[in-house]
Amino acid sequence: MKKTITLALTIILLSCSNEHEEINDTISENIPEIQYFNSKTDFEKKIKSIEINNSEQLISNEYNILSEVLNKDNIIGIGDHLIKVDLDTESVYLLNKSFLDQYNDLANINLKNNNITQLSIYEDVLGFLDGSNTLLAKPACTSTPAPYDYDYQEASAYYRYIAVSASYSAYGIYFKLRYQCVLSDSGYSRFEEWDITYQTTNCVNYSSYGENEDGDGEHDGNIYATIYSSTVPLGSFHCFVSFSSSAGTASVTIES
Question: What pLDDT is recorded for position 151?
Answer without folding.
Answer: 98
